[in-house]
Amino acid sequence: MDKVYLTWWQVDRAIFALAEELRKNFMPDVIVGVARGGLIPAVRLSHILGDVEVKVIDVKFYKDINERMEKPVITIPLHGSLEGKKVVIVDDVSDTGKTLEVVIDEVRKAGASEVKVACLSMKPWTKVVPDFYVFRTDKWIVFPWEEFPVVVRE
Length: 154
Ligand code: 5GP
Description:
It comes from Thermococcus gorgonarius. The protein has helices at about 10-25, 40-50, 100-110, and strands at about 5, 30-35, 55-65, 65-75, 85-95, 115-120, 130-135, 140.
């Protein structure tokens, strides 16, 4: 599968674009970051939006690039209630969309009054199109936090 490599600068610009959209259209009470890929964007968004509370959920689905388990499994559940809260779920990318399906369900069960999804990117085939996203690609995305300082590419 072809890969696309993103820089910190590109990711930061994308996060600012998401923040702008959220500020205009859906200012959240709580950000739910999906570990691991959604955590850096979630924390950055929280600061840009002015100290919005961040909660974490961890869902395991991928074993390797494009190699998935049977279904996503929650390894760290959401902590506490989201009763009556406006919640934005933040992840790096919606690929099959199965992870987000599980997370949306959990956030609703925790009592959120409104739920939206914000991702840096989405794949054209996803079944969960984020309410807010910055770009589409059919390639495997390599985010800057996944890279080592020195990388030898074939
Ligand atoms: P999904 O459940 O939508 O198939 O995938 C969800 C998770 O798998 C994403 O949050 C991300 O962590 C990982 N993932 C899926 N596609 C990609 C990709 O192209 N690049 C990276 N780095 N992770 C991906």
